[in-house]
Design goal:
It contains ten helices and eleven strands. By secondary structure, the chain is of the alpha/beta class. The longest helix has 20 residues. The N terminus and C terminus are likely disordered. The structure holds zinc ion (ZN). InterPro entries: CARBOXYPEPT_ZN_1, Peptidase_M14.
Length: about 350
């Protein structure tokens, strides 16, 4: 049973958390995966896990301000603050309010940073025209590093047992130890409130991709995946919204899985509306896609974190995802995307033996 759970970011890790660093008071006794700690292969088996190459929050903000000054089409807005008072940013490219709009959200979980790195690269490309003239046909919103406190390890609980070496440790949770991707109904945390009050409710958004990282051992058809994707699975989502989510997924699959380095599975996700993929689809009628990329930037469990030698292709996977979806919305081709591939796309599984037998 553990082998499946070990691969999952969106849901199961909250259960892991109570057995690990956080030891939340709400759960009594050891959680099922407690013994996973230390049983897996040494994280060196996933390469050198170091955070020194990752952009800090301050470096990200500096980059965004620099791009804002250079790019006429770009606007940079502060949408709120984290628990620790860090400004949260929205990058906006709105050429025509009547155009369709897509939102890219990264790092709700602070230890999942390469999606943010990819989003920053995408911003740079938009400025240089490397992505072509897509801005005339689509409005693009980007909220990078929503959990900036967790990304900087600036939290009210210890991270002593996290595996990454380098400038800092990164954690899934916000400073209060809350999983932001379980807060999309109650909206208690300031980060979630900033997103909903100043982005979701303020713009007419058609599509959203929520970018994450999962463990390192998920596979499809016998090969480790570079990521996995999923549309809203709550029964309360409008079927038309779900169909457009599947089209969004079709564009991602066609562009990533065909690259040679990309290999995507179907994510096994739950139907809770506290999760953005479900809750935002229901509350706002936005077509959402979850993208879980391989390997986290840091973790307290061996086997979740992935070394920096994989950074390049995972950043590229993010850039490919963002560029291809924006382009497909801009030229309208997303409406022709064939969603039938979903019927044949296998749900990812974990390597036999799970964490103990990874190669
Ligand atoms: Zn995540």
């Amino acid at each position: 049973m553990h082998s499946k759970e070990v691969t999952r970011c969106e849901e199961i890790l909250e259960d892991l958390a109570v057995s690990g660093a956080l030891a939340l008071a709400v759960v009594a006794g050891p959680a099922p995966l407690a013994q996973a700690v230390g049983e897996g292969p040494n994280y060196d088996g996933n390469g050198q896990v170091t955070t020194s190459k990752l952009a800090t929050y301050d470096q990200m903000v500096s980059f965004l301000k620099d791009q804002d000054a250079k790019q006429q089409a770009m606007e940079l807005e502060v949408i709120g603050q984290t628990v620790k008072g860090r400004d949260l940013h929205l990058v906006k490219y709105i050429s025509d309010p009547d155009n369709p709009t897509i939102l890219y959200l990264t790092q709700q979980h602070g230890n999942e940073q390469l999606t943010t790195e990819g989003a920053l690269e995408f911003v740079k490309h938009l400025g240089t025209g490397k992505s072509g003239d897509i801005l005339s046909g689509v409005n693009i919103l980007i909220v990078p590093m929503l959990n900036a406190d967790g990304a900087m390890g600036d939290v009210n609980f210890p991270l002593d047992d996290y595996v990454a070496k380098g400038d800092r440790n990164l954690t899934r949770y916000n400073a209060e130890g809350v999983d932001l991707n379980r807060d999309h109904v109650a909206k208690v945390q300031p980060e979630t409130q900033a997103l909903h009050n100043n982005v979701m409710r303020k713009y007419d958004i058609d599509y959203m991709i929520d970018l994450h990282h999962q463990g390192t051992r998920s596979e499809r058809d016998g090969e480790l995946v570079s990521g996995s994707i999923l549309y809203p699975t709550t029964p309360n989502a409008d079927p038309a919204v779900v169909e457009r989510s599947k089209q969004l997924g079709a564009v991602v699959f066609d562009n990533v899985d065909s690259t040679g380095w990309g290999h995507l599975g179907k994510y096994q996700g739950g139907s809770a509306e506290t999760i953005s993929r479900n809750g935002i689809a229901v509350e706002y009628g936005i077509s959402t896609l979850l993208f879980e990329m391989r390997g986290m930037s840091d973790h307290y469990l061996d086997g979740y974190a992935l070394g920096l030698r994989s950074n390049g292709y995972l950043i590229k996977q993010t850039v490919t995802t963002l560029t291809s979806t924006a382009a497909a919305i801009a030229d309208g081709s997303i409406a022709d995307a064939d969603t039938s591939f979903w019927d044949g796309l296998a749900e990812q599984t974990s390597r036999p033996g799970g964490e103990a037998d990874d190669e």
